[in-house]
Design a protein that fits this description.
With 105 residues, the chain is an alpha+beta fold. The chain has a single domain, classed as M1 Pyruvate Kinase, Domain 3, CATH 2.40.33. Helices cover 19% and strands 25% of the residues. The protein is built from three helices and six strands. It has a six-stranded mixed beta sheet with strand order 2-1-5-4-3-6.
């Protein structure tokens, strides 16, 4: 599962010089507040679902075709994080994100 943040999209939009819509990046979830963790093993909970960081998400070069030339470069280190799903449950629009879930020991 991939998660990105609106604040990272805003940074990338400023670099690109045009808006980058969350729906154009091909990520599963966009959070409105906070910074998406990037350290492998870190865990977060969104709604009922616990997630564990696997790696930083790399922006696809196809984004240059979809969003505009330079989008992939603007999204470099701002494209979100890839997570492993650790628990079943439901995630709903507006659910809180708990960033305090413990890291794997």
């Amino acid at each position: 599962m991939s998660v990105q943040s609106l604040s990272s999209l805003a940074e990338a939009s400023a670099i690109l010089g045009e808006p980058i819509e969350a729906s154009g990046t091909r990520r599963n979830i966009t959070i409105s507040d906070g910074v998406v963790p990037r350290k492998p093993g870190h865990r977060i909970v969104i709604g009922e679902v616990e997630l564990e960081v696997v790696r930083i998400a790399a922006p696809c070069r196809l984004l240059d075709d979809v969003i505009g030339r330079g989008a992939a470069r603007a999204l470099h280190n701002r494209a979100g994080t890839i997570f492993r799903v650790l628990s079943d449950g439901v995630i709903r629009v507006g659910d809180a994100v708990n960033f305090g879930a413990p890291d794997v020991a």
